[in-house]
Amino acid sequence: MKTKKIITVSLAAALAIGALTANGVLVSADAEKGTIKVAASATPHAEILEEAKPILEKEGWDLEVTVFDDYVQPNLVVESGDFDANYFQHIPYLDNFNEEQGTHLVNAGGIHIEPIALYSKKVSKLSDLKKKATIAIPNDPTNGGRALLLLQAAGLIELKKDAGITATTLDIAKNPLKLKFKELDAASIPRTLNDVDAAVINGNYAIPAGLSATKDGLFVEGKDSPYVNIIAVKDGNQNDPRVKALVKALQSDKIKNYISEKFKDGEVVAAF
After folding, report:
1. Were both Cys, which of 99, 103, 230, 251 would link to 272 (CB 3.0–4.6 Å)?
2. Are residues 113 and 268 in contact, defined by beta-carbon separation less than 8 angstroms?
3. Are 118 and 154 in contact (CB under 8 A)?
4. Options 3.90.190.20, 3.40.190.10, 3.90.226.10, 2.120.10.10; which CATH number does 15-114+227-270 get?
5. Terminal CA-to-CA distance of the chain, rounded, Å?
6. pLDDT tens for each residue of 127-158
7. How many Cα atoms sit within 13 Å of 209 on the Cβ side?
8. Domain at 117-220: CATH architecture
9. pTM for this prediction
10. Which of 87, 84, 58, 85 is nearest to 71 (CA)?
């Protein structure tokens, strides 16, 4: 009888200080905090954000995710203030974008790494690549440079010592196979695999194309990659309650476990 009273009182107290959402999630009465608007790539970013929705809902936040299929608009809509944050890019890309576009975006928190890889539908190992083979790489400065660094690590080319992370094909010092490079929009590269000998593909475009870095890649970027995918916000908004709540949710154990279970082959690795 005493136990029943405690349960009744506890439930009554809960309903008095809060409300149940349609999903049965109890939200505190003072937790109607508003909407967090995030621009994201479809995979894995939007998928990870979907997993964070219940976490934020418990805190009174409504997470609204809009998927973009390019690497430009997500930054522009955050710069304009139409969105609170975006989740699709790594720091080298962000830094280069700010420099080229005059935007004022900053890193609010690192979430995961997507190892890039070299893929091919024509050869099954690096040693099978023939002279003058055509390799597709991203045409934006940071991902293009990242692709060339990957090819250097694979032993296919050698870059000038001062090339750095924004290396271009002009920085290739040695190219023993006389490889040819086809620079394309990163999103379109998976569709070109039948037309080139090999291609360097970003993780968020490889995954929806059914490609696994560890299973299908001829050569895969190491796990010590500096290309951590981040939550980016406009400078000055790093401590906005929306942003802090978003980063906290995405850096939770629940999200870390989701990433490790969803991407068992290491296509996506938690970075926190």
Report:
1. 251
2. yes
3. yes
4. 3.40.190.10
5. 47
6. 999 999 999 999 998 899 999 999 999 999 99
7. 24
8. 3-Layer(aba) Sandwich (3.40)
9. 0.72
10. 87
